[in-house]
Amino acid sequence: RKKCLLCNNVLMIVAASIMGCSKISQSFEMILIGRFMCGVSLCVPLHHQYVGEISPRKLRGFANSTSSFFWTLGKAIGQISGQRELLGSQALWPLLMASCGLPALVQLLTLPFFPESPPYLLMQKGDQEACKKAIRQLWGEGQHQAEIDDIMKEKATMKNTKILSVLELVKEPAFRWQLYMIVTLTATIQLCGINAV
C-alpha cells in the first residue's frame, strides 16, 4: 500500500512538472499529457485503503471520510486560487497547473516515516512481528491483540473467497447490476454539481 502511494506521488509530481513547463515549451499537448497522468493516478482509492487500514477501529469511519473532505477542499482551493487576482492570470497560470504536485511532494517526503499497513503485513506478507511493530508505532503501546485477531479472522475468511480477475468480474452475472451501478455513478459524478460546490 505504502509503496503504491509513493509511486503514485512520483507520477503526480511528474504530471505537475509537465503541466508547469507547458507555457515555457509553448505546448498545449503537455497540459493534456499532465492532466491525463493526473487522471490515471490512484490517489483516492489508495488513500481510502491505506488510511482505513492504519486507523484504529473506532476512528476508521472518520479517517475514511477525510478523503472526501480533502478532495472537496482541494477543489475549493483550486477554484479560489484560479481567480485572476491570484494565480489565474496569464503569467501565473502555469503555477496553478503545477500546484497539484505540492500535496504529492509533501506526502512523498512524509510517508516514508509511516509504517506499512498492519493488515497488509499480516495478510499478504504473513509477518506477524512486523504487523505488531506497525500497530505499536501507529496506535501506541498497549493491548492490541483483539485487532490482530480480527485481521487473522479476515485472513481466514479470505482463504475461502475466490479472487476474481477484472475479466471474470465483468463476465460474472451475479455482479452485473452492481457493476452497472458503479460505472453509471462514476461516469455521472461530474453532473452532480460537486465542481460548483
TrEMBL record:
Keyword Transmembrane: yes
InterPro entries, A to Z: GLUT (IPR045263), MFS_dom (IPR020846), MFS_sugar_transport-like (IPR005828), MFS_trans_sf (IPR036259)
Alphabetical list of Pfam families matching this protein: Sugar_tr (PF00083)
Any one GO cellular component localisation term in the record: plasma membrane
Protein name per its UniProtKB record: GTR5 protein
Single GO molecular function: D-glucose transmembrane transporter activity
Compartmental location: Membrane
Membrane topology classification: Multi-pass membrane protein
Domain Major facilitator superfamily (MFS) profile: 1-197
PROSITE patterns xref list: MFS
Keyword Transcription set for record: no
Signal peptide: 1-27
Organism of derivation: Spizella passerina
